[in-house]
Amino acid sequence: MSVRVRFAPSPTGYIHVGNVRAAIVTWLFARKHDGHFLLRIDDTDLERSQDIYEQDIEAGMKWLGMNWDDKTRQRDRKDRYDAMIEKLKADGRLYPCYETPEELALKRKTQLSRGLPPIYDRSALKLTEEQKKSFAHAPHWRFKMEAEPIEWHDLVRGPVKFDGALISDPVLIREDGSPLYHLCSVIDDIDYKITHIVRGEDHVSNTAMHVQMFKALGADLPHFAHLPMITDSEGGKLSKRLGSLSVKDLRENEGLEPMSIISLMARLGSSDPIEPFCKMQSVIDSFDLSKFSKGAPKFDMEELLRLNTKIIHETAYADVKARLTEMGLDNLDESFWLAVRPNLNKLEDIKEWWTVAHGPVTPVIDDAEFIAQAANLIPAAPWGPQTWKDWTDAVKTATGRKGKELFMPLRKALTGMEHGPELAVLLPLIGPEKTLNRLQQKKAA
Question: Distances from the Cα of 26 to the Cαs of 53, 85, 287, 418, in angstroms?
């Protein structure tokens, strides 16, 4: 069987770490099996859906390196939904209900007070045609659940069972006639021949309803895989900040590498260890959906940052050259990249190294006499990794200074800062001419 999967985000907000995990796992599963990946925009909520969020979804996926084989929008498929709705009405599986939200709330409250489950009582099925006509408002429509066992073997959770008699008939059509997510999703999955559905475990109860909808429409069931919800690093519910952490934030504000996110999400919640990957194909080759468990995985931002650092340290110059040019560092060559790469946490960190090495820098000279002595002891060219130690050893011997009293004045004179990149690496990049020039500047005012 050819694998056909879909990622179905709603364009009602920026794509975040929670739903991008489902996207990554689904996409990797498709590519692992040479399958078909559908990007489906679930925009039945016309009031909240916005083009800017759809654009963000696409931009985020492209940035992460995930392409799609086909794309569809639910708002373009109304005619198809209407046809299937008429079929379900004709078959008696969709029936009209006229209760107001207030009346339904009172029913639920009464049931709960009696210790009963808040299941719709199907009183609408007892209405006569005359009674239906007496209502001034249009009905909403519910799907009639069959009182029978609902079972499937989940690819993550294992055997799952529900009793259809204990599930309230879900509302599938609003009073304005617009269909809700559940029915549209099932119809789409049938029409696009989806074979595997990967989504969060918060959809498990929805899936129980969907199983009966598939059957009511005469379709075979796809395979289901419900991933556990991500917790914070302490195992608790994600904070609002982390829970809404968007791919846009990770890309623009955090400055992370896309492969750090791919590396984390591809293994988070599986029995395979989390490790940094620089190439997508390596992630695809090692991906195995069967290794995911139903235990809640922990999302740790610090772990993501560590992965990012490791990936930067393994990234070849050829793979970042174009990006460096975009950053205005088109003169940055491979030797400079290899020299500073071990000291980078994010690619943008290289800007500081470049500026300190090439300027402009305003030296800060607080002790002109000491700096003059140091300038006279500058080692002869060529300079290399040992130059900084050789120089500071000579200055230490000549002046008697050591520790911070030795290093800080030199750092301030060379970089204009009290902190920054390691001078052992920087000094050869600055070079003898710029070093001497900075040391011979006048004392700062």
Answer: 20, 29, 11, 48
C-alpha distances (whole Å) from 349 to each of 329, 346, 429 are 12, 6, 16
Contacts 24+ apart (CB under 8 A), 250-258: 250/17, 251/60, 251/63, 254/346, 255/346, 255/347, 255/348, 256/304, 256/305, 256/308, 256/346, 257/308, 257/311, 257/312, 257/315, 257/346, 257/347, 258/63, 258/64, 258/65
> pLDDT for 270-319, tens place per residue?
999 999 999 999 999 999 999 999 888 988 999 999 999 999 999 999 99
Helix (H) or strand (E) holding 251: none
Q: Are residues 283 and 235 in the same domain?
A: yes
Find out whether 225 and 201 touch, Cβ atoms under 8 Å: no
- Asked if residue 211 is part of any domain, the answer here is no
Last residue of a domain, one of 153, 173, 193: 173
Predicted confidence (pLDDT) per residue in 394-433, tens digit: 999 999 999 999 999 999 999 999 988 899 999 999 999 9
Peptide linkage before 96 cis (omega within 30 of 0): no
| DSSP label of 155 | T
Helix (H) or strand (E) holding 142: strand 140-143
Within 10 angstroms of residue 354's Cβ, the number of other Cβ atoms is 20
Domain hosting 430: range is: 368-439
Residue 71 tokens read as 């794309």
Please tell me whether residue 4 adopts helix, strand or coil conformation.
strand
Q: What's this model's pTM, rounded to 2 decimal places?
A: 0.90
